[in-house]
Amino acid sequence: MTTARKGTVYLVGAGPGDPELLTLKAADLLATADVVLHDDLVPQAILDRAGTQTRVVSVGKRCGSRRITQEQIHALMIMEARRGSSVVRLKSGDPLIFGRAGEELDALEKAEIPCEIVSGVTSMFAAAAAARKSLTDRRSASKVILTTAHHASNSSGTDRPSFWRGPLPNDATLGIYMPGRDLRALAWDMLQGGMPPELPCVVMSQVSLPGEDRRTTTLGGLGDVVPGPAPLLVLAGWPLADRPEASFPEFAQTEFAQTAARME
Ligand SMILES: C[S@@+](CC[C@H](N)C(=O)[O-])C[C@H]1O[C@@H](n2cnc3c(N)ncnc32)[C@H](O)[C@@H]1O
């Protein structure tokens, strides 16, 4: 059993939402920390695992509404650690994936605060499990790409930056975090980048939570999907097809075989 140490900050992954997907270490730290600073996406069922003496504080930014700045979060972590508290900085999924962990680690290092990182299940991996698809099905994929459409979805109009440039390698599975609700714009970016309209896609909503929802489509149909409630994640790639070995197009098979041969 791990006990949270005084004066230390733990960057902890809460996983996608199901409390049973917490690591044992995360659960121990939650139960023994003096203070938990958590993001919006961490559900109450996980926060309920905090100790009875633990102060649980939301530092979520609510989809960019900036109730609290990133610098204020740094200051809070440092202040709590300096006054001798054990601090769990709790983030959804894995703390090192799209979670501002780089900035937080820099701030803690600069302030000479001891820090540990506890991995969590990132939502892309939980989404694959929910869809019962192997992200690296060896019949059609040998790469996984984690990306975000965050900047694109926060903008509008003709100036909207594309979240994706250039073609997707045929043997890659793509996980798009923070895709926004305008899936038409997302699909447009992907098609403009050269991805084929037949590319299988899955739109996952609230993975591992009671409201989990899954919409299976192709890139050509992605724009017509009305997604379930946030948080949303989009998976795209040939392993997501009903029969990956059958739908993997011939041109992609050739390229994939060449890559595999080079690797042998
Ligand atoms: C700020 S990022 C944090 C990612 C997180 N660190 C991870 O590893 O999953 C938030 C995005 O993660 C994805 N996400 C997190 N939890 C999710 C869930 N339960 N279902 C679907 N997507 C989720 C969504 O794309 C959401 O907009």
Short key terms for the protein model shown above:
about 260 residues, 5-stranded mixed β-sheet, 2 domains, about 30% helix, about 20% strand, alpha/beta, binds S-adenosylmethionine, elongated, Methyltransferase, Cobalt-precorrin-4 Transmethylase, Domain 2, Cobalt-precorrin-4 Transmethylase, domain 1
How do the helices and strands line up, and which of them pair or pack?
Blueprint: E1 9-13, H1 24-32, E2 35-38, H2 44-47, E3 55-58, H3 70-82, E4 87-91, H4 101-110, E5 115-118, H5 123-131, E6 143-148, H6 150-153, E7 172-177, H7 183-192, E8 200-205, E9 213-218, H8 219-222, E10 232-236, H9 244-247, H10 250-263
Parallel strand pairs: 1-4, 1-5, 2-3, 2-4, 6-7
Antiparallel strand pairs: 7-10, 8-9, 8-10
Helix pairs in contact: 3-4
The structure holds S-adenosylmethionine.
What does this entry look like structurally?
The chain has 264 residues and is an alpha/beta fold. It has two domains: 9-118, Cobalt-precorrin-4 Transmethylase, domain 1 (3-Layer(aba) Sandwich), CATH 3.40.1010.10; 123-263, Tetrapyrrole methylase, C-terminal domain (Methyltransferase, Cobalt-precorrin-4 Transmethylase, Domain 2), CATH 3.30.950.10. The protein has ten helices and ten strands. The chain has helices at 24-32, 44-47, 70-82, 101-110, 123-131, 150-153, 183-192, 219-222, 244-247, 250-263, and strands at residues 9-13, 35-38, 55-58, 87-91, 115-118, 143-148, 172-177, 200-205, 213-218, 232-236. The strands form two sheets. A five-stranded parallel β-sheet has the order 3-2-4-1-5, with helices on both faces. The longest helix is centred in the last third of the chain and has 14 residues, at 250-263. The relative contact order is 0.14. The mean pLDDT is 91. The structure holds S-adenosylmethionine (SAM). S-adenosylmethionine is lined by residues 16-17, 41, 91-94, 97-99, 122-123, 177-178, 204, 206-209, 231-233.
